[in-house]
Amino acid sequence: MEQTVPSFIEAAKGYRWMPMLFVLFVGLGLRLHGLGDWWFNPDEGLHFDIATQPSFPEMIRVSLDQANPPLFYPLLRVWNSLGEGIYWLRLLSVLAGMASIWISYLLGRQWGGPAAGLTAALLMALTPGAVVLSQVLRQYTIALVFQLLTVLFMTRYIHRFRKQDLWGYAVSLVLALLCHYATLLILPGLAVAWVVAAYTRRWGRSDLKAMLFAHIPSAIAFFLVFGLHIGPRLLGSSLQQDAVDTYLKPYWISNMRDMLPAIPELLRYLYGTGIHWLLLPWIVFGLITLAGSRDLWLLGLCLGVAATAFAMAALRLYPLGGTRHSLYMLPFLFIPIADAVRYLACRNGRVLIALLVLCALAGYGLSRPGLTDPESGFVTQAAELEKIIPMTDFLKLQSQLLQLSHAPGLIIIDQETYYALAPVFGAARFAGSTEGPFPWNRRMVCVYPHWRWEYQNRKNAPWNYLFQCTEGYGRSRNGGEGTQEADIRMVRMGWSPSLIEWIKAHPSPEGSVPVLTDIEQGINSELFRIHLQGHSLANLSPQWNGR
Q1: Is 404 strand, coil or helix?
Q2: What is the pLDDT of the chain when averaged over all its residues?
Q3: Per mean pLDDT, which range of 33-37, 334-338, 486-490 is the poorest?
Q4: 247 contacts: CB under 8 Å, gap ≥ 6
Q5: Burial degree of 180 (CB within 10 A; 0-12, 13-18, 19+)
Q6: CA end-to-end span of the chain, whole Å?
Q7: What is the pLDDT of residue 368?
Q8: Burial of 541 (0-12, 13-18, 19+ CB in 10 A)
Q9: Beta bridge partners of 521
Q10: pLDDT band (50, 70, 90) for residue 508
């Protein structure tokens, strides 16, 4: 029998998977590119240190002193047991980033068809902020996966009313809550969405009962994390106060002048300088199309999450703007953009293609170096916050530190440096604590009991703590004799400003400055020797406060 040749359109339908496959390959390439070019930043090292504690109960105990819920650390502990090395550890985030691309596609396709699905996936794959956070050992992309799954299962349930989707929603929401507290800011948006869906689709009593029942696990999880962690350990703690007053201070909202640039700054962090202005009209137009669609609850979801984000920033409870902490907003930004594409695809494909080509050309131009930013406008800001220690600089520093560890002497570091070097110290670091000292081969390591050197705190200033540590080291070796000739090194790695320049510019109260020699400097890393010429350590610090 003679076979008929399919038409071009019929043949093309068999390859509808190719655009999505291309998006996945692009997303994977961006996330693998330069994955090992940078050493762990201190926050990555902090997560590694917690996940590799000597025992599981100790890991949970230590994790409760941090600002994040505990789920990420068991996941990282299991992952670390399956392999080793910086590439392997960060691959966990890469896989989560790839999963977020695929789930974004499924989410967009569920309510808006292939055009919306492909748009959502493409935005997730290309977003510089999401790319960078998929390349570091952090919990943001893993939490994003669970948050996306929560919205996906919710969408499927509203469309299909299948019990398995409602259970998938319940489980995903619990996992998202246990992975990152940004999920708490999504809860009001979910509540608005459920109410709008129930009202517009005229749910019956049994549907409302099923919906309420599905929230029992997340309510239990919320009260557990609040009662065991948020309430007793975070609210009103020094950890919260330090975050509010220092590194999160630029992301609070005090008045309308702070509110207006918050969303553009968030878009600039996620998508790059200049490109964010191209996306704002799409977001506004998408909110309008959502208002006229059958899925009006999606509009309630996006607006509910946005209103909560502004409220929490105004109350100084959670930051909003150009910071990694705002990654949870990403799905609620691409939902209106994807719906705008869906709307145009259904009504005028030529206009849509023309607009996308113009936006692509404009985006390429705006991301060129020197046009909108002195450096590359595409990933500069996001990368600067995470990728701070080039691998080449670290390898030089590591080589010197390993040589030093086999000779008697002292290394003095702050907690920021301790966590950045945690993989180098290995299990030896558990012989002491983050307030030191602990033996590392033949050398003692003394850890300054603060995140970074407190330059303005005269009681715990770098030179004062240096004398305390060196005197304690001298007493332990020779019964209290001076240690002017001991091999004493100081190391700094992380976001802190240069310690060398500070010590040179700020002499001790006694009027003398330690002599610095053998300086090894890199980008955000320093190693140097301190020679205490002419100091009488017994007079400077009669009591050593190290443990």
Answers
A1: helix
A2: 83
A3: 486-490
A4: none
A5: buried
A6: 89
A7: 58
A8: middle
A9: 526
A10: low
pLDDT in tens, 271-301: 877 777 888 889 999 999 999 988 999 999 9
Task: List Cα–Cα distances, 338 to 109, 141, 345, 499, in angstroms.
Answer: 9, 20, 10, 48
- Per-residue pLDDT at 543: 33
């968030």: which residue's tokens?
Answer: 266
C-alpha 319/C-alpha 244 separation (Å) is: 9
Query: Strand order in 525-531's β-sheet?
Result: 438-440, 443-448, 409-414, 488-493, 525-531, 515-522
Secondary structure of residue 527 in the 3-state scheme: strand
Q: Interior CA angle at 409 toward 404 and 414, to 5°?
A: 80
What secondary structure does DSSP assign to 256-318, as a single string?
A: HHHHTTHHHHHHHHHH-TTHHHHHHHHHHHHHHHHHTSS-HHHHHHHHHHHHHHHHHHHTTSS
Tokens of 454: 């407190």
Q: What is the gyration radius of the CA atoms in the chain, in angstroms?
A: 27
- Alpha-carbon span 463 to 459, nearest angstrom: 10
How far apart CA 545 and CA 449 sit, in angstroms, is 10
